[in-house]
Amino acid sequence: MDSLYIELSQNLKEKPNADALGFGKYFSDHMLTMDYSLEAGWHDLKIVPYGPIALDPSAMVFHYGQEVFEGMKAYRTSKGELVLFRPDMNLKRLNASCERLSIPTVDPSVLLQAISKLVNIDESWIPSGEENALYIRPFIIATEPCLGVRASHTYKLLVILSPVGPYYPEGIHPVSIYVEQRYVRAFRGGTGAAKTASNYAASIKAQEDAKKSGFSQVLWLDGVESKYVEEVGSMNVFFKMNGEVVTPELSGSILAGVTRDSVIALLKSWGVPVNERKVSIEELVEAHKQGLLEEAFGTGTAAVISPIGSMKWGELELSIAGGKTGELSKKLYDTITGIQRGQLDDPLGWRYTIE
Ligand code: COI
User: Fold this and answer.
1) Is the sign of the CA dihedral 203, 207, 210, 212 positive or negative?
2) Is any atom of ligand 1 closer than 6 Å to the C-beta of 196?
3) Model pLDDT, residue 3
């Protein structure tokens, strides 16, 4: 860490109104950068004023999308502590994504210390407000100027910070979902389990079409048989059926969400039966028919828990939990955000305090 260079901004920005942040529209005063070359490995770890970066138009990221990213949040607890939520999991996943995209991995402890320093410097950007947080976006891009399709020989890592409100303007409010049958997000052997830009790019068309038809998100089915549920929008998905909670197993095309893992651990600690297994759309329809589909919700860092109020599959429209936020969804939301914000005990050791 003694190699971390810091240049503080001389032009601090005006902060946005904490009541109207939206998601990812404002950025703090500083950013973290680090470069990679074959000769030097990862080097030049710096915190510098936030601003544009210069890249060659032939930089490989622009052409073949060799990129990975992460998302986590910083909070200030009522005791005034600065905390992150399970950052070790995000950094582990960043490296797993790097492996899949043939990007050199980073030292997670060096990166965590540097991110902590960045958050410390821009601590005043943590917005007030129960549902607000400072979103941390680490990402790595291929920077070598070359049009050959191969792994780049140079990379840039950046970490930017954004004060955010709830991912959905409505906050924890049930959303309507369109079960996507035409497009797929990921498939066996693809990059679905990695957090990489192309997965999100591939989802935009379906998302736009769903929006035009009055739905908030799409429910993604598997790319082989279009039969098994995979994710919802950019989140993992859970269903409560007949007393059991199920979530699609990590098949290789599903992102291993940190909130997903936390929900599973909490449910187990509460003695609620939870299973990671294949869930077909027919099973959900059948459970709904029998009145056994009790709740459905998405999980992610951005929205935490996003209840699903209805699902449309072909001509069938299924209303879930009477279109309201289910009891379990609300309990999970309150518990996870309570732990994140230091309002609840942290028996599983998920809070990471920035010194
Ligand atoms: C999340 O739910 O944390 C996400 O991954 C969404 C993000 C791409 C904005």
Assistant:
1) negative
2) no
3) 87
Range list for CATH 3.30.470.10 in the chain = 5-164
Mean pLDDT by 10 residues, the chain (355 residues): 86 95 97 98 98 98 98 94 97 98 98 98 95 97 98 98 88 90 92 97 96 95 95 97 96 96 98 98 97 97 95 95 94 96 96 95
Q: Where in the chain is the domain with CATH 3.20.10.10?
A: 175-340
DSSP helix/strand/coil, 288: helix
Distance 300 CA to ligand 1 centre (A): 6
User: So what's the pLDDT on residue 46?
Assistant: 98
**What is the C-alpha separation between 85 and 107, in angstroms, rounded?**
19
Ligand 1 centroid – CA 197 distance (Å): 11
Is the domain spanning 175-340 CATH 3.20.10.10? The answer is yes
Whether residue 258 has its Cβ less than 6 Å from ligand 1: no
* Fold of the domain built from segment(s) 5-164: D-amino Acid Aminotransferase; Chain A, domain 1 (3.30.470)
- For residue 235, the model assigns a pLDDT of 96
Q: For residue 37, what are the β-bridge partners?
A: 41, 154
Q: How many residues does the chain have?
A: 355
Please state the pTM of the whole predicted model. Answer: 0.96
Q: What is the pLDDT of residue 78?
A: 87
Residue 297 zone, left/alpha/beta (φ > 0; ψ -120 to 50; rest): beta
Residue 166 near ligand 1, beta carbon < 6 Å: no
> Does ligand 1 have an atom closer than 6 angstroms to the CB of 71?
yes
Long-range contacts at 208-212 (CB < 8 A, ≥ 24 apart) = 210/178, 210/180
